[in-house]
Amino acid sequence: MMQTKQQARETAEFADKRILVTGGTKGIGAAVVKRLASGGATVLTTARSVPTGGSSDHFIQADVSTRAGVDRVIQATLGRLGGLDILINSVGGSSAPGGGALALTDDLWQQTFDLNLFSAVRLDRGFLPSMLKQGHGVIIHVSSIQRTLPLFEATLAYAAAKAALTNYSKGLSKEMSPRGIRVNSVAPGYTETEAAVALVERLAADAGTDTTTARAGLMDSLGGIPLGRPARPDEVAELIAFLASDRASAITGSEYVIDGGTIPTV
Distance (Å, rounded) from C-alpha 127 to C-alpha 259? Predict the structure, then answer.
């Protein structure tokens, strides 16, 4: 069956592009890696754990929530690729316990900011000199709708870190866009990643109900999702791929929400 013109374009739209995706072994990050690689890019990814069955040629094992881990990723990426065209800061998450603000210790706040904010700040700082030297580049930060709709029970520090990431991304874009570097951010809502599926299963088990009921309850806790379902990782990846591509060459300093209509305000 012959390829359509659109399929041919999508297969080659990232040809010769050197890309790094952090947190690219699971969830949204893994979907981004798959989408960009299908577009012809050379994609490196990084995570704390080695992926099962993955190729070490395209993987850097490192904890980017630490200064040492970031340095390892920067050195390995520049050593393998000689530079970078697109940086996708996708890593993030929260392991804080429930219990609200009083359950969050200084260490938990620091760990959350190290992973969700400072990993991006340090990686950007490490790759920007080579991007500026070549006169072009794209940086995308994966934020969260919690930067607008914070949930206090277990993810207050995470929400605050993502709010800071969005603010930082906007400021960086103002400095770098005149110099050829586009900077944007993407704010997903509830996305049905492996972690989200596991959460629903745990909620169902704890409540003695089924996963359909638990999933609906989780959506209700967010104020509802008008679309009627969570986003899929591949849908978020498609938005990120668009923003990283030359099709979005006039877009910088923006944040795109992909949440099925969860945020109720303009």
Answer: 30
The rounded Cα 208 to chain-centroid distance in angstroms is 33
Contact in structure between 197 and 151 (CB atoms under 8 Å):
no
| 158 among known catalytic residues | yes
What are the φ/ψ torsions at residue 143 (nearest 5 degrees)?
-95, -140
Per-residue pLDDT of the chain (266 residues; tens, 9 = 90+): 555 655 555 678 999 999 999 999 999 999 999 999 999 999 999 999 887 765 678 999 999 999 999 999 999 999 999 999 999 999 999 888 888 999 999 999 999 999 999 999 999 999 999 999 999 999 999 999 999 999 888 899 999 999 999 999 999 999 999 999 999 999 999 999 998 898 889 888 988 999 999 999 889 988 899 999 999 999 999 999 999 999 999 999 999 999 999 999 98
Retrieve residue 132's tokens.
């500026």
Say what the pTM is. Answer: 0.93
In the chain, the largest separation of any two C-alpha atoms, in whole Å, equals: 60
Query: Exactly one of 158, 168, 190, 256 is catalytic; which is it?
Result: 158
Of 5, 36, 24, give the one whose Cα is nearest residue 89. Answer: 24
